[in-house]
Design a protein that fits this description.
The complex is a heterodimer of chains A (492) and B (429).
Chain A: E1 34-40, H1 44-55, E2 60-63, H2 93-108, E3 112-115, E4 119-124, E5 129-134, E6 145-155, E7 159-161, E8 174-176, H3 177-187, E9 195-199, H4 202-213, E10 221-223, H5 228-232, H6 234-238, H7 241-256, E11 261-263, E12 265-272, E13 276-283, E14 296-299, E15 302-306, E16 309-311, H8 314-317, E17 323-325, E18 331-333, E19 346-348, H9 358-372, H10 379-398, E20 414-416, E21 421-422, H11 423-431, H12 438-445, H13 458-464, E22 481-482, H14 483-487
Parallel strand pairs in A: 1-2, 1-6, 2-3, 6-19, 8-15, 9-10, 9-15, 10-11
Antiparallel strand pairs in A: 4-5, 5-6, 7-16, 12-13, 13-14, 17-18, 20-21
Helix pairs in contact in A: 1-2, 1-9, 3-4, 4-7, 9-10, 11-12, 12-13
Chain B: E1 9-12, H1 16-27, E2 32-36, E3 51-52, H2 61-77, H3 83-86, E4 94-98, H4 101-116, E5 122-125, H5 129-132, E6 142-146, E7 150-151, H6 154-167, E8 171-174, E9 178-183, E10 189-194, E11 197-200, E12 204-206, H7 212-218, E13 226-237, E14 245-248, H8 250-256, E15 267-270, E16 275-279, E17 281-283, H9 293-306, E18 314-325, E19 332-335, E20 342-346, H10 352-367, E21 404-406, H11 422-428
Parallel strand pairs in B: 1-2, 1-12, 2-8, 4-14, 12-20
Antiparallel strand pairs in B: 3-7, 4-6, 5-6, 9-10, 10-11, 13-16, 13-18, 14-15, 15-16, 17-21, 19-20
The chains are: A alpha/beta (492), B alpha+beta (429).
Bound molecules: flavin-adenine dinucleotide (2 copies).
Chain lengths: 492, 429
């Protein structure tokens, strides 16, 4: 069972520990009430939006699939682990503690209903929106599902990690960069003792610095881009000193631990039989093709690898919401200055509008709530948002995967892990069978049809199928739903 | 503009029907080209199921077509090179069940008529149904086993047929949109204009599926193809708990009783990869892609009623497609007397996968001037009075009523939209 008062770890440093926010719990108590606003996602964006909306007098439901607020960024040590000082792993913890303090106050005063463990699988639009939630398969019949009704909806469902496959990536000991962060923050466990961090994007530095701070040895941080892009946009950099400080802080941490940053390089293979024991790192040319003769082996017992994040927006795109293509080759929701999507009544904030980090997510959540409540957005907040967005776009452009990465695949490298589809089958679908996009490759090979619904292999498959500009993935069901719960829906 | 070497025939559409047309045309010795604005199977072929059914068709032209096609699919599957495995051909047979006695009686009468038309159907007493399907709900009145019913994976079937055509010399042009059908002074077809150039050919096959009406319009003739939406639910991978294609046929009783009420009936089938497919709904809502929660509710409820064990599984995904249908629920196949050189091969509604090989074969016969195996008169494109059902074209919503029904995909002969009873109800709206 999720959040209960008794499981709350006492934390002297943060008296308003998020653990104490009162959740309505997985009982679907949303009932028949029509909210002014339903916020989907209780990460930084959703949390900020919900508390702001409540403060501005809106009746608000905050709905999240997880048991605790905070999303991907603000993670909690699992209750019972007795972690006394989660803030050590989080420079944003104070901000989070403030947000969750407000959440607690509003839920306590019943100004805001916080629904945990509610996985929204579809939304029906209208004057009154209906959000359909499943509480998981442990719950049978009516107890396992809920419908949240609201006049407006804010989508703050965040993002998931982009994976690019390479030989050996399915070995035990290979984890995602964000996954390593998450393990550390919520479980306080390390994926190994000697951990290579690789891929591309700002998350690598954050992950590496957390890992070394927690006692791991990080023999190398392997970043595929060469950072030249950054240097070309000095104005945007200068306008975002906090971001530079953040980067510098990670840099200092890494330096202090003697961690080497290898730029313009990639892990092109992980070795091992039962578990990863070493990786091969090679230099990349500007298209991310491995340069012959540059391979070197690094011994390790874990590899944390990631290539940025992909906005999770299917709840909106299934309804036809307009999208935009981001500079790093993903698809995000198109929003206007007031964070309105193209669908009347639907707003978006945080990573759903394009990956930009936790502080931008908070700013967007707060702004959206103000717009929804019909209040002005302070000029400073607006300006902050614009600066951060510009910075995010710059980062995105710098970390866009180069077209040459598939060269490090071998014919038998599994691309879709759920359905065990190797690269050769995908190439055959393209060259022999007439597939030209990810959807057709999926139909012909099953790549992306498994449990994760292509969240893991989707970007790689899209690239291998040469399918032109990125498109929104089609996922009519945003989450799996127990069949009995579908059968149990209210007839319409 | 580029001019390319002339072909004997150019097929518009790389769905299963276009692929079959190209395949049989090449087999007949013709030089063929296939054009599609998307990839292979990018239209309805990649958005449906792969039931090859005779069980749901009442005696008549569609059943004749289905019987021919069933034979052709089997021949294709057994043609060597592992073609059958490559397209996941499974001659698994169908099982149609009735929950009560009136349904069972209607089924018996229906099967008797089908047998007279050449369908194999074996009656299964209620207490023996679970020998065929161990997980079937208890207490069903009875059913019929149809050994000719089979299944393929539609996208693979289309892709493999198209590949075979290509290897035999057909030119395949994907990602190219047809923008005009060119005609000569005498009105006969000269070829196509596309967004990339020109393709000359004295014969054009309209295998544009749900968009066949728009293609016909480019050729200056009316063909009222409209979209009919269907959703399919896909469960998590399961061990083989469903062996045949199984569906309930209680609506047979309703059709017999003349009721025009809306009927629904899920078709449940296992797949080689493990997931169970539950399909499919039928709604006329234009090209609206939004998920219908009500459809999910009905399909899930009906599937669990047939196989109670499914109540404990998780639905992993859902997808939807738009069947190409014509007002009388028969496809348009063959030469269009209004436009010399234009051939239609579209409008197969919920049976296009099943009927594709027969369609391709019959068209190839006409192309080389041979007598087709079947009389094509019932499938003539000019059989409709001027625009009876909201007009030709893309049917993007005009004049269409809303209605939800479901039935076995593979045909219209016996589904709720059959030529009597409920079918007329649908046409009235
Ligand atoms: C694995 C991972 C690790 C990360 N680690 C770091 C890090 O260490 N440092 C850093 O600076 N940034 C990190 N990030 C980036 C970070 O996610 C963002 O900067 C920030 O959290 C964005 O906030 P958000 O509110 O937009 O989304 P999120 O924080 O992602 O919150 C989204 C919330 O929506 C919920 N949700 C999603 N779909 C549904 C649904 N269908 N129904 C109900 N609820 C739903 C989720 O449960 C989640 O709580 C990480 C991202 C990921 C994916
Ligand atoms: C949910 C559902 C379940 C189904 N289940 C079954 C089943 O079990 N058994 C069965 O037999 N059938 C089933 N069907 C029906 C079957 O899928 C269709 O009848 C069949 O796919 C039609 O194939 P097609 O080749 O005619 O059309 P499509 O596959 O749609 O191909 C038409 C092609 O024409 C192309 N095109 C159109 N206009 C142009 C242009 N101007 N220029 C270039 N290209 C163009 C399109 O891009 C498209 O690729 C089902 C359908 C649905 C929706």
């Amino acid at each position: 069972m999720p959040t209960s008062q008794s499981e709350r770890p006492e934390s002297p440093e943060s008296p308003e520990s998020p653990e104490s926010s009162e959740a309505l719990g997985p009982v679907g108590r949303a009932g028949g009430e029509v909210y002014d606003l339903a916020v989907v996602g209780a990460g930084p964006a959703g949390l900020a939006a919900a508390v702001t909306a409540a403060e501005l007098g809106l009746r608000c439901a905050l709905v999240d699939a997880g048991p605790r607020p905070g999303g991907q960024y603000y993670r909690h040590p699992a209750p019972g682990l007795g972690a006394a000082r989660p803030e050590r792993l989080h420079h944003g913890w104070a901000a989070f503690a403030r947000l969750s303090g407000r959440l607690k106050a509003h839920t306590g005063a019943r100004r805001l209903d916080y629904l945990t463990d509610h996985h929204i699988w579809t939304m029906e639009r209208g004057e009154i929106w209906q959000l359909h939630a499943t509480l998981g398969s442990e719950w049978t019949g009516a107890a396992g599902r809920a419908v949240v009704r609201a006049r407006s909806v804010l989508l703050a469902t965040g993002a998931y990690e982009r994976q690019l496959p390479f030989p050996g990536w399915t070995l035990p000991g290979v984890v995602t960069a964000g996954g390593a962060q998450a393990m550390l923050k919520s479980g306080l466990v390390l994926p190994g003792r000697r951990i290579v961090v690789a891929g591309s994007g700002p998350l690598l530095l954050a992950a590496a610095s957390s890992l070394v701070s927690a006692g791991a040895e990080v023999p190398a941080v392997v970043e595929a881009t060469d950072y030249l892009h950054y240097a070309r946009s000095l104005a945007t950099l200068a306008a975002n000193p906090a971001k530079l400080v953040e980067g510098a802080r990670h840099g200092v941490t890494l330096l202090r631990h003697g961690v080497r940053l290898r730029r313009g390089s990639a892990v092109v293979e992980a070795h091992g039989t039962d578990r990863v024991t070493a990786v091969t790192v090679a230099r990349l040319d500007r298209d991310w093709r491995p340069v012959p003769g540059t391979a070197r082996r690094i011994a390790c017992d874990a590899l944390a690898v990631g290539h940025g994040l992909v906005p999770q927006i299917e709840l909106a795109t299934e309804l036809g919401a307009r999208i935009r293509r981001t500079p790093d080759g993903t698809v995000a929701l198109a929003v206007d200055d007031g964070l309105r999507t193209s669908l009347p009544g639907l707003w978006a904030a945080g990573e759903t509008c394009g990956v930009g980090g936790a502080d931008l997510a908070v700013a967007e959540g707060e702004s959206a709530a103000r717009v929804i409540a019909g209040r002005p957005v302070p000029a400073a907040l607006r300006a902050f948002r614009q600066r951060r967005r510009a910075f995010a776009e710059l980062m995105a452009a710098a970390h866009r995967p180069g077209p040459g990465w598939p060269q490090w695949l071998r014919a038998d490298t599994e691309v879709c892990r759920c359905e065990e589809v190797p690269a050769a089958r995908i190439r055959e679908a393209v060259t022999e069978l007439g597939a030209a996009d990810a959807r057709t490759v999926k139909l012909l090979t099953r790549a992306g049809m498994g449990w994760c619904q292509g969240r893991m292999c989707g970007p790689a498959v899209a690239c291998l199928s040469g399918g032109g500009p990125a498109r929104a993935d089609s996922r009519p069901l945003a989450r799996p739903v127990p069949l009995a719960q579908l059968a149990d829906l209210e007839p319409s | 503009m580029l001019t390319r070497s002339p072909h004997d025939v150019v097929v518009v559409g790389a769905g299963v029907v276009g692929a079959a047309c190209a395949y049989y045309a090449t087999l007949a010795g013709l030089s063929a080209a296939v054009v599609d604005r998307g990839p292979v199977a990018g239209g309805t072929t990649g958005a449906g199921e792969g039931n090859l059914l005779v069980s749901d068709k009442e005696p008549g032209p569609e059943l004749d077509l289905a019987l021919l096609s069933t034979r052709l699919w089997r021949e294709l599957a057994e043609s060597g090179d592992g073609f059958g495995e490559a397209i996941e051909y499974e001659p698994k047979g169908g099982l149609v069940v009735a929950s009560g006695q009136p349904g069972a009686d209607a089924l018996r009468a229906f099967a008797a008529a089908q047998r007279a038309a050449g369908v194999a159907a074996e009656e299964i007493a209620g207490d023996r149904l679970r020998e065929l399907e161990p997980h079937l709900a208890p207490g069903l009145a009875g059913g019929f086993h149809y050994p000719q019913d089979a299944q393929v994976q539609p996208a693979l079937a289309a892709a493999r047929l198209l590949r075979a055509a290509r290897l035999a010399g057909a030119e395949v042009r994907l990602g190219e949109t047809v923008t005009a059908v060119r005609t000569g002074r005498d009105g006969s077809v000269l070829g196509l204009t596309t967004d990339r150039g020109r393709i000359d050919a004295p014969a054009v096959v309209n295998a544009a599926g749900t968009w066949g009406g728009a293609l016909a319009e480019l050729a200056g003739v009316a063909l009222p193809v409209l979209p009919r939406r269907g959703f399919v639910l896909v469960t998590e991978p399961l061990p083989r708990i469903v062996r045949h294609k199984v569906y309930a046929a209680d609506y047979v009783a309703d059709v017999a009783s003349g009721s025009a009420g809306l009927q629904t009936s899920a078709v449940v089938e296992g797949t080689p990869a493990g997931p169970v497919l539950i399909g499919a709904s039928r709604e006329r809502v234009g090209f609206d892609r939004t998920l219908s929660v009500e459809v999910l509710r009905r399909l899930a409820g009906q599937a669990a009623a047939l196989f109670p064990v499914l109540a404990g599984v998780t639905v992993q995904r859902a997808y939807r497609g738009f069947r190409p249908y014509l007002p009388d629920h028969l496809p348009a196949i063959g030469a269009d007397p209004r436009r010399p050189g234009l051939y239609h091969a579209c409008g197969h509604e919920g049976a296009g996968i099943g009927l594709a090989p027969a369609t391709g074969l019959l068209i190839s016969r006409q192309l080389v001037g041979k007598q087709p195996e079947l009389d094509l008169t019932p499938f003539r494109a000019d059989r409709f009075a001027a625009a009876p059902d909201g007009g030709p074209g893309q049917g993007s919503g005009s004049g269409q009523g809303r209605g939800t029904a479901s039935g076995p995909d593979s045909g219209s002969g016996r589904g709720p939209e059959a030529g009597s009873g409920v079918g007329q109800g649908e046409r009235r709206d």
